[in-house]
Design brief:
About 40% of the residues are buried. By secondary structure, the chain is an alpha/beta fold. The protein has a domain of about 240 residues: 3-Layer(aba) Sandwich (Rossmann fold), CATH 3.40.50. The longest helix has 17 residues. It has a seven-stranded mixed β-sheet with strand order 4-3-2-5-10-17-16, with helices on both faces. Strands 1, 6, 7, 8 and 9 form a five-stranded antiparallel β-sheet that branches. The chain has a three-stranded antiparallel β-sheet with strand order 13-12-14. About 35% of the residues lie in helices and about 25% in strands. The chain is built from 14 helices and 17 strands.
């Protein structure tokens, strides 16, 4: 680990002052420290040139298909004169650009009502978004998390955002949870230490998602994560939304699968140059650190804050319901440049690959609003967690 890493030096100083910091604090520093944190560094890249690929960076079809859903939401809200689409974490702006272009060309009435907003905490990404999206002028604006704004009628959308929230890491030891902290060894290198769990919010979290740790049969050394940051995030979204929808897409599991005894190492993953591993203490500030999303927590806490669960399904089924199958068929039958056709065919299949992007969860929640999507596969419309089994 390079000694010239200013972020690592700052983290070490924090640890020296406190004796140890929670893993949640370490992850927040590694990802979000101004200038040096992974998401705030100037050289962050998303897509083929970066450390990971998102559906938005893979193909414009993703944003076009989601636009079909946004148009249906607009109709479900009885075509309000202003439909606000707030994108949380907009990457390099590809998704917004496609939504605006596709709406203008295909659904001019919807486009006339569309007000696009972006909330982006990364200064580097925000600047790239402004460069890409500048031609749209006042059809698009950026909102800070603390920026007062009128209540939204429309949709709040996020894709692969919640997985990057800092998480608490826990270890089961002697019949109780211990929390994982980060300390320094005698040589000044990062090391993990266990401390008694003192945060009652974690016990409340497990009760909310229907997990009784004492009955799970965990062995000593079992590790997992709890994402407490999604709770105030959902509460904030609900408070911003006057009427409309929250659409969240991310990789994760329902609680019974997330906290299954067989998933003994948790879900924490790190991404560095399109390779993934589970060591968050190397490449500090230069790698992404993520944890899968507890889908049950999204729905249960959403309901606490007034968001009704409308659909919980897989991305593959959601996109097929929005017309991806028709696009595949048309693409196969069309004429054109062979290499371009092959690349698009591969990208479309990646969107529905059950072992990849297609396996992501789509959670659609409504506030004073409902939505009838085209039929999904039997048993997968508004998926009940109780019917999904307990396998990891």
């Amino acid at each position: 680990m390079p000694t010239g890493n200013p972020l690592l030096v700052e983290i070490q100083e924090r640890i020296k002052a406190a004796g140890a910091i929670s893993f949640c604090e370490f992850m927040a520093l590694a990802l979000y420290t101004p200038q040096w944190g992974y998401y705030n560094r100037p050289q962050i890249q998303i897509g083929q040139r970066g450390d990971f690929i998102t559906a938005s960076s893979l193909t414009r079809d993703f944003a076009e298909l989601l636009t079909e859903a946004f148009v249906q939401m607009w109709h479900a809200l009885e075509r309000p004169q202003r439909f606000t689409l707030l994108e949380m974490g907009a990457g390099e702006g590809q998704f917004a650009d496609v939504v605006l272009n596709y709406s203008q060309a295909t659904y001019p009435d919807f486009f006339a009502a569309l007000e696009y907003q972006i909330q982006e905490q990364s200064p580097s990404l925000r600047e790239r978004q402004r460069q890409r999206l500048g031609p749209w002028g006042d059809r698009l604006c950026w909102r800070g998390s603390d920026t007062p704004a009128a209540p939204i009628t429309g949709c709040i959308f996020s894709n692969e955002v919640v997985d990057a929230f800092p998480v608490h890491r826990l270890q089961w030891q002697g019949g109780n949870w211990q929390e994982i902290y980060v300390s320094l060894n005698s040589e000044g290198a990062l090391q993990e230490v266990l401390r008694p769990l003192r945060d009652d919010r974690i016990h409340e979290y497990f009760a909310t998602v229907g997990i009784d740790p004492q009955r799970q049969g965990y062995s000593d050394g079992y590790r997992t994560e709890v994402n407490l940051n999604l709770i105030p995030w959902l509460k904030d979204l609900s408070q911003r939304l006057e009427r409309g929808f929250v659409l969240t897409i991310d990789y994760g599991y329902p609680a019974q699968q997330y906290y299954h005894p067989a998933r003994c190492e948790g879900t924490l993953q790190c991404y560095y140059q399109h390779r993934y591993h589970n060591n968050p203490y190397c490449f500090v500030g230069e790698q992404d650190i993520t944890a899968h999303v507890d889908v049950t927590a999204l729905t249960r806490y959403g309901e606490k804050f007034g968001l009704e669960t409308l659909y919980v399904t897989r991305q593959s089924l959601f996109l097929m319901a929005l017309g991806l199958g028709d696009r595949l068929l048309a693409q196969q039958q069309g004429n054109g440049h062979l290499l371009q056709a092959l690349n698009r065919h591969q990208s479309l299949h990646q969107l529905i690959d059950p072992l990849g992007l297609g396996g992501f969860y789509v959670v659609l929640q409504g506030k004073q609003a409902t939505l009838e999507l085209p039929p999904l596969e039997a048993g997968d419309q508004a998926l009940p967690f109780t019917g999904m089994g307990n396998s990891p």
